[in-house]
Design goal:
With about 280 residues, this protein is mostly helical. It folds into two domains: about 55 residues; about 220 residues, no CATH class. The protein has nine helices and no strands.
Length: about 280
Amino acid sequence: MNIFTGIDYFKCRCIEAFLQVFLFCRSLQFYGNNRIVHHMSKLGQYILFLGALFKNRESFRTYVKLFFDECILIGINSIILVSIVSVFMGAVSTLQTAYNLINPLIPDNVIGLVVRDLTILELAPTITAIIYAGKVGSSIAGNLGTMRITEQVDALEVMGINSISYLVLPKIAASVFIYPFLVILAGVLAIGGGYLAAKFGGVVSPSDYLFGLKMNFNEFSITFALIKSVVFGFLVASISAFMGYNTKGGALEVGQSSTRAVTISCIAILLSDFLLAQLLLVQ
């Protein structure tokens, strides 16, 4: 009798454990479905947000003034940071490329070729975009988030002004316009930093480095980098503006919106980088 009682108790425990696992899996599935629905809802709101940019616009003269103000705020104030990062990025790329080329059959001028292609195709547009998202994206999200919680956005709406178009459109236009120039600056300075590393680091002669820069050059690399820069500039400004504009709460939520804007912008940059490379480079 005791044996049967022990077997029944074991069966009950097994059934209970199975039910707990089943309910846990169902809860995970429900949570996952909710997360998917949430992200799809955010994507739809983002698309509607972009569509609202061109409704009930202000005069062209108003946007011109706001556009140049944003160009100074976004582009000019980012030059020093982009310059410092680019010079050291090119110098480190040269040193590390020289360190890994240990085969004596590979000529030294390959170092210049590798640094040139790496800088133009990836370092200048993509790595700079992540830095750009951290500096400019967080600034845009924080600025709009502060305006939202202090009811400045609501004041614009009360006056009959499309706040999305008035506040966000100049930021996106300035970012799309000015970021390619930052990418060009980053590319030039990175290659210049590589030359300085070659000259003073002693890993390769400056003449071999310069010869490698001119060897087997593909002009489409420049076009590809500029296309990526336009896309990245748009993504950083629009995503950051969307996150900041839809901030709800207080000062804590403004900081959270800025952090979320940088995170999502970086993910969007990397994803679009892969898609553009697949579409434009892979034959």
